[in-house]
From TrEMBL:
Any one GO molecular function term: DNA-binding transcription factor activity
PROSITE patterns for the chain: HTH_DEOR_2 (PS51000)
Coiled coil region boundaries: none
Protein name: DeoR/GlpR transcriptional regulator
Domain HTH deoR-type as annotated: residue spans: 5-60
InterPro entries, A to Z: Carb_Metab_HTH_regulators, DeoR-like_C, DeoR_HTH, NagB/RpiA_transferase-like, WH-like_DNA-bd_sf, WH_DNA-bd_sf
Keywords annotated in UniProt: Lactose metabolism, Transcription, Transcription regulation
Keyword flag Transcription: yes
Domain of life the protein comes from: Bacteria
Amino acid sequence: MKMYADERREHIYTYIKSHKRATVKQLSDYLSVTEATVRSDLRRLESENKLIRTHGGAKITDNLGSNLNFSYRLTQKHSEKHKISRHALKKIQPQQCIMIDASSTTYELAKLLTETTMELTIITNGLENAVLLKENPHLTVLVVGGFVSQDSNAITGNIDSQILEMYHIDYFFLSANGFTLENGLTDFSLPEVQLKKQMVKESENVIALIDKSKFDISSTLSFAKISDITEVITDETPSNKWKQNVPFSLTVAP
């Protein structure tokens, strides 16, 4: 089946993100397209700040991969992320303390929470999430690093990651760049991975919001083993190996 250009570029980006680098020939063979087509796609992806072209190929550095254009990531798999987040919202009960990471998937959950009338405490390491959530007067919003004022975008106070030890966190909703049975949940950025490890440790329930494209892809750094995860919510049933002898619940959002 013929692949549209944007789909092809998404496959190229996903491949390089997984392998950290690739040659034009590797990508040409992988997608069964000409090397000229691959070079054109790499130029386009570089112009969008998604990768760095090299002699004969392209790469993604740790820093580029971790900060890759948040606004761009918000546009990718949007309907899948919304469906997953809508199902995740059903788990939350009034008066709970929940935590959400800084991923584009949990940003969809944050958008849904802007409409809630439940009284909740929400801890996040995502400034975009915090700025969005602070507009809801039913929510007490904290960021790792300080409080977010409801009257402005300022982060005030001097609260570091030790704040996590002070709260009983009912649910930690998070996503990742990749998810494998061997390495668990993985990501690119060392500082964020270090923080996520502590966030996982301090949470009673760890709920991973993972669209199907992230299964069987591993990034550089692991921050949660599969034994750390309470439930995985996804948009589509993954391969059979994910249904056998896993220590977490696997839910496909309707």
